[in-house]
Amino acid sequence: MDKQQYLVKLEQSLKKMPGTERSDMLYDFEEHFSLGREEGKTDMQIAEELGDPHKIGKELLADYRIGQAKKDQSLSNIARVLLSLIGLSLFNGLLVAVPFLTFLVVLAAVGISSIALAVSPFIFLFNLWFGEIYYIWPTFFLSICLSAIGILIGIGLIIAVKKGVPYFTRYIQFNISVVKGEKSI
After folding, report:
1. The pLDDT of residue 133 is above 60
2. pLDDT at 154
């Protein structure tokens, strides 16, 4: 494979990366080819030394996404890193996907419960206005207590997400380094 073919395949693997980042990566690989030619190597030898452009592209994309997830630790960035990891290795991707999806399901369940508890005073008012409530004051205080519990659970959920996302980022980064062969389990 010559330089142009190699760079085209690498660019196809990096198409999900922003243009400036992708251009920088491609420029670095063009430099590898230039330096290799100066040493008297053919394009095929240089391409062979560099490795499979598709695999390298996946690794570079995963590294880029990890960098993005470290800068902006949001669940969407973690999901993008997860998808990059699945592209590198399906088995390792699944090792990361199962805990991540479990985390999302628990977050959704706790979030829905928190919202349901937090709106209980409105349900009380609705029942007071349109229905019959036999024990008004105990029901009112119960709805206020449930609302407070819901709000506290919601605050705890926000804290859990802020604390949990960095751990997932490190866990995914560890799995990517295992896939690349930089670390062993």
Report:
1. yes
2. 94
